[in-house]
Amino acid sequence: MNSLTRWQRPELATWPESGRLTDLRDEIDRLFESPLAEWARSSNLLSGWTPALDLYEDKDNLFVKVELPGMKREDIDVSLHEGCLSVSGERKGESKHEDAEVYRAERFFGRFQRTITLPTPVAADKVKAQYKDGILTVTLPKTEEAKPKHIDVNVH
After folding, report:
1. What pLDDT is stored for residue 35 in this prediction?
2. DSSP per-residue string spanning 78-128
3. Can you give the pTM of this predicted structure?
4. Which domain holds residue 27?
5. Cα dihedral angle (140, 88, 50, 59), rounded to 10 degrees?
6. How many domains does the chain have?
7. Is residue 8, in this structure, part of any structural domain at all?
8. How many CB atoms lie within 10 A of CB 122?
9. In terms of domains, do 90 and 129 share one?
């Protein structure tokens, strides 16, 4: 005779332990890092440096601060075009260390460019830039239309 087997709901697939997912992700990262790291070292696309930049505002102005340590004022170019601020320049390298063994070289030299889109319109003819102690500060006055307006509410 045929025996009947009671139907049971199949068990739902469960997620592997999070540790196993982390191990898998680490392994995939490692596989991709090795070839890309070699490519990055030999590629001119990733050479150079990108200085740190802050953008903030008050009610009247936008402020941009850029870290440019070790640069001369004449090696920095600031321009404003169609609502974008560009800061570019070149940090000159030091003379090569003749007859010296270099154990670590982490400072970047060469050309850089940072371009940011400004969040509000600015008065281009009133923009000011100052460079002091390796920090470039660009003050961009907002146009009158961009400044916040206080509107009184009348109750009738």
Report:
1. 57
2. EEEETTEEEEEEEEPPPPP-TT---S------EEEEEEEE-SS-B-GGG-E
3. 0.63
4. 16-47
5. 0
6. 2
7. no
8. 21
9. yes
